[in-house]
């Protein structure tokens, strides 16, 4: 049961930032009303971050990963989350064997 | 005889309703938690570190992003900034929910530690036809929390026996999971522009400049694209 000091600090920083976002809404409840472009930009934050995290793995690692990512994206609109993950993992294993 | 005390009965009924409502989300989160723990172990995190992260951070999206870009030693500021970007949506969720759940300020500071997409969505739905009580929230959010800590810890224990995750394609599991999560934001024109811009900028920055800059650059480009692509008139 060991904890690295830098890892501990990273976890504490993530925890503090997350807690602040969770309680910040309590203090701005009567003032925060976003509309139009500002709301669109705010709503875009989660997908924009998620895509940025995986883009290098999905697009620039190799053909197997890029094709598997495309297959996963098609599955994602039709299947539940876990089935989507299963399709993605199975395709990458197959494609790595073929390519 | 506690059962006859009407206040106690009310509490029990609210708590049972919370557990009933959260059950599907909690069950669906178990394999996701196992996967998180296993991949985190594969990236060199100890079981204690995984448990600590799930307990203190308790935010799936931010934890997944952290593990996907995990290196030793951990880049503290980069992780904190990515965590902020992913979790800033909580501000709007808390602002919307707090007038609907009558708690004292101290109770609020405790209760909102457990704010997640799932518990927020369920509380907002319940608020449509009745007040959201502390007992309902405690049962629901507490259940999801315990579930997440236990399943990620178990995943870390099991993952350390599995060995190299790339052998089983498990290194691609997060990419696939993220694609599934992104699809959940829909196929509107603004979302597609956001996703396309973010992906292109992140891939280019990763190639020419390197990690971890691709996350912030891609995300900011995607957000800017959404701002420009959205109609000027407020449609809320």
Question: How does this model look, in words?
Answer:
The complex is a heterodimer of chains A (99) and B (236). Chain A has one domain. Chain A contains 5 helices and no strands. Helices cover 81% and strands 0% of the residues of chain A. With 99 residues, chain A is an all-alpha fold. The model of chain A has no long low-confidence stretch (mean pLDDT 90). Chain B is an all-alpha fold and 236 residues long. Chain B has 2 domains: 167 residues, no CATH class; 52 residues, no CATH class. Helix content of chain B is 73%, strand content 0%. The longest helix of chain B is centred in the N-terminal third of the chain and has 37 residues. The mean pLDDT of chain B is 87. At the A-B interface, helix 1, helix 2, helix 3, helix 4 and helix 5 of A face helix 1, helix 2, helix 3, helix 4 and helix 5 of B. Chain B: It is a multi-pass membrane protein. Chain B: It comes from Microvirga subterranea. Chain B: Belongs to the AzlC family. Chain B: It holds the Pfam family AzlC. Chain B: It is found in: Cell membrane. Chain A: It holds the Pfam family AzlD.
């Amino acid at each position: 049961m060991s904890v690295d000091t830098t890892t501990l600090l990273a976890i504490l920083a993530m925890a503090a930032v997350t807690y602040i976002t969770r309680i910040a809404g309590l203090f701005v409840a009567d003032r925060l009303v976003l509309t139009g472009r500002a709301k669109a930009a705010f709503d875009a934050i989660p997908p924009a971050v998620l895509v940025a995290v995986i883009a290098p793995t999905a697009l620039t690692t190799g053909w197997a990963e890029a094709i598997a990512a495309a297959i996963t994206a098609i599955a994602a609109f039709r299947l539940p989350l876990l089935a989507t993950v299963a399709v993605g993992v199975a395709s990458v294993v197959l494609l790595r064997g073929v390519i | 005889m506690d059962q006859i005390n009407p206040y106690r009965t009310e509490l029990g009924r609210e708590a049972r309703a919370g557990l009933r409502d959260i059950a599907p989300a909690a069950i669906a989160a178990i394999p996701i938690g196992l996967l998180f723990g296993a991949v985190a172990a594969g990236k060199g995190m100890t079981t204690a570190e995984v448990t600590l992260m799930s307990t203190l951070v308790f935010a799936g999206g931010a934890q997944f992003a952290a593990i996907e870009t995990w290196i030793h030693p951990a880049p503290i500021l980069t992780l904190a900034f990515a965590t902020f970007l992913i979790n800033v949506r909580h501000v709007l969720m808390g602002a919307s929910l707090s007038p609907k759940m009558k708690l004292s300020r101290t109770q609020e500071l405790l209760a909102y530690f457990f704010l997640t997409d799932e518990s927020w969505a369920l509380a907002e739905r319940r608020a449509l036809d009745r007040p959201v009580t502390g007992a309902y929230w405690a049962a629901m959010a507490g259940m999801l929390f315990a579930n997440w800590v236990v399943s990620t810890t178990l995943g870390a224990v099991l993952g350390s026996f599995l060995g190299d995750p790339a052998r089983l394609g498990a290194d691609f599991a997060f990419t696939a999971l993220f694609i599934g999560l992104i699809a959940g934001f829909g196929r509107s024109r603004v979302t597609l522009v956001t996703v396309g811009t973010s992906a292109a900028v992140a891939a280019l920055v990763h190639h020419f400049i390197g990690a971890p800059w691709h996350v912030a650059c891609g995300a900011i480009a995607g957000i800017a694209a959404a701002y420009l692509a959205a109609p000027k008139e407020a449609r809320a």
